[in-house]
Design brief:
By secondary structure, the chain is mainly alpha-helical. The protein is 74% helix and 8% strand. It has one domain. It has a two-stranded antiparallel sheet.
């Protein structure tokens, strides 16, 4: 099997560009985009979970405060 690289000519600079390089670049860009989108979704999900935890903590602290007040009253 011989190494038969196909080239295209850039319409702007007239340089010869390997089709393999172009396809590799496109695939890399698509993968980077997908990873970035996944990371943004995960970050949003983590922010939502963090907010829920903070709210739950506040509720628990309020409940604990109320229980202490009841104990002191008795």
């Amino acid at each position: 099997m011989k190494n038969d690289t196909k080239n295209i000519i850039c319409p702007n600079c007239k340089a010869a560009i390997s089709i393999d390089d172009v396809l590799t670049h496109q695939i890399e860009e698509n993968i980077k985009k997908e990873i970035n989108e996944e990371n943004k979704l995960k970050e949003a999900e983590m922010a939502k979970e963090k907010k829920e935890i903070v709210e739950e903590k506040a509720k628990l602290e309020e409940s604990q405060k109320n229980v202490r007040s009841e104990i002191i009253k008795r």
